[in-house]
Amino acid sequence: MRPPDGRSGDVLAGDVLVSCHGLSRTFGTGPGSVVAVHGVTCEVRAGERIAVTGPSGSGKSTLLHLLAGLDRPTAGSVTWPGLGGADRLRPGPVGVVFQGQSLIESLDVAENVALPLLLAGAGEAEAADMAGRALGLLGLAELAERLPEELSGGQAQRVAVARVLAGRPRLILADEPTGQLDHVTGAGVIDALVQTAAGLGAALVLTTHDDAVADRLALHWRMADGTLTGAGDRGLSCSA
Fold first, then answer.
1. Closest CA to 195 of 123, 151, 133
2. Which of 47, 84, 170, 175 has an alpha carbon within 20 to 30 A of 196's alpha carbon?
3. What share of the chain is helix, strand, coil (3-state, %, to 5)?
4. 50 and 223 in contact (C-beta within 8 Å)?
């Protein structure tokens, strides 16, 4: 199964995919402004597994959106040296699993998963095949013809994960991917993310409140009041 068109070229383990220097993001102006991310310097390399932990409101989701190129920093810079630049991130090299509902209500599950592949240049038959494989990986094949309104919150989240994995990205960014799932189902989603990332040689960065999820990944970053710590330590061992 070849990747969709629009992807960057071959990426080797250890190549820098995303690089941030003095990254800050402030929402609003004046006394009511909120600093969500403050002075973050970090990089994500091909093949890395990174858990970003921290309390609600600490800036985890904002940081993920900046890494994905979905938001622009107020100060500092973010570049994608290993992914071909900001204009080539999606659809293709970067896949994002959002925390909230992200499925298109008028499309069934299979169509939702296939849509980014079609946008990336895959043919209809190829996109359908890749979508079917991703749904099977997450145990969702029987839901292929259902509409989003017919899914539980947990099922919808797993479909969103399948949509990202189907695109075979170089960088997978997942915002609380197990937040709406029970322990067993959540563990299966993490298995799928880790195994797919390993098979692709992709980097995986996810935010989580769950220590058991964080412990599945080798590197641990922590956000507190918009400040990131741990991004310079690549010596932690993975427990799974």
1. 133
2. 84
3. 35, 25, 40
4. no
Secondary element (H or E) of residue 221: strand 219-224
CA atoms 44, 25, 83, 165: torsion sign: positive
User: Strands 227-229 and 219-224, how do they pair?
Assistant: antiparallel
Give the dihedral sign, CA 10/11/12/13. negative
Using an 8 Å Cβ cutoff, are 4 and 122 in contact? yes
Residues 6+ apart with CB under 8 A from 62: 25, 36, 37, 71
Given phi > 0 = left and psi -120 to 50 = alpha, else beta, which region is 57? Answer: left
Model confidence over 23-53: pLDDT tens digits? 999 999 989 899 999 999 999 999 999 999 9
165-178 per-position pLDDT tens digit: 898 899 999 999 98
pLDDT given at position 152: 87
DSSP state of 126: H
Packing angle of the helix pair 153-166, 183-200 (nearest 10 deg)? 0
Confidence of residue 91 (pLDDT cuts 50, 70, 90): low
What tokens were used for 4?
């969709």
This prediction's pTM:
0.86
Report the C-alpha gap between 220 and 217 in whole angstroms: 7
- In angstroms, what CA-CA distances link 49 with 7, 163, 213? 21, 20, 11
Structure tokens at 100: 């909230």
